[in-house]
Input
Amino acid sequence: MAEKKYRVVHYLNQFYAGIGGEEKADIPPLIKEGAVGPGRPLQQALGEEGEIVATVVCGDSYFAENIEAAAESVVEPVSRYKPDVFVAGPAFNAGRYGIACGASCSAVSKKLGIPVITAMYKENPALELYRKEVYIIPSADSVRGMAEVIPRMASFVRKLGLRQEVGLPEADGYFPRGIRVNQFVGRTGAERAVDMLLSKLRGEPFQTEYPMPTFERVPPSPVVKELHSATIALVTSGGIVPLGNPDRIEAASASKFAEYNIAGVHDLTPDAYQTCHGGYDPVYANNDPDRVLPLDAMRALEKDGTIGKLYDHYYVTVGNATSIANAQKFGEVIAEKLKAADVDGVILTST
Amino acid sequence: MHVASIVPISLTVGANRIVPAVAIPYPLGNPELPEDEERELRLKLVKKALRALETEVEKQTVFEE
Output
């Protein structure tokens, strides 16, 4: 074979590299020449076309406790082997290992610009963290699925190594990365939609072109018992901010939320507040921001003793094409802050 | 609890206590009303929101009239 083999570097944790169990989980990254552990059957499946030239090994705890630094420290040794492809795992349902696989793939891809691939179980928490940046193929939840996943990993590595085009997730067997690809099709959207509808009515299988996201359900919070002594907070996705939008919350696809002090403020007036939301006609909210964030009403109810107190800060973001991941993150942080401040109840207003 | 202009969205994203609001650009107001009536409307909605917070729910609940 005159053709040059493509070069692969493989990432493993201390366990799969045969170094040790939890007692070795804190070892920093080290390099082993050639294929190790699951790398051996992987090498076998790759055959003559590709070669695992080195294996990077790192302890799971070391990695998970210093994710960014550990991922960085993997990049340099990997670069020395000039690989064409970087592959990690499979991590199955191991949380720390999954993060190590995802983060090392992500760092190598960003820093070295080479294709990367890993494999893990669909419920591995690292999947949601890295699926957008990294090709992740599904594996079973435990090592029992090793024999089954290795050939699929190998064929994906081969595809990347030979610089073949990666197809759609269903065709090439990886978790969707949330990337939209333009393509020309012979039939208009209307025709395709009617076809789907007909299939649905006939009870036949059909495939949506735009899957809807799924949302987490949370158990209802307990009731606010003593309203007259309770602290109630206001939160809004309606973009009510101090005039000038000092924190520059985006009018759409917000990347942040903000917290503003309203102690001593009794009414939201156009000379001090405005909306920065880009998804509705701002005239009404700008003329009277209380229409979105009902501060005046809350003050009235605070004054007449219906509630104990309006919390001194309110939280605001813009709910306009804002990603669910961001919204969830904002919600979690805001909830933590409100809990830490002993707030008893929250009114969230949305436009 | 969630004061929401578009109740189906609020249900989709998983809010458990929902009070329907007036309209998208003015969920807690109505620019067509005289100022005092609009303030009264807002007060009513906020009181309803507070009642929702005081009400035990086991599943997603929309607090209509």
Observations:
- The CA atoms of residues 75 and 108 of chain A lie 5 Å apart.
- Chain A touches chain B at residues 215-225, 227, 232, 238, 280-285, 287-288, 290-292, 294, 296-298, 300-301, 306-307, 345-351 (CB under 8 Å).
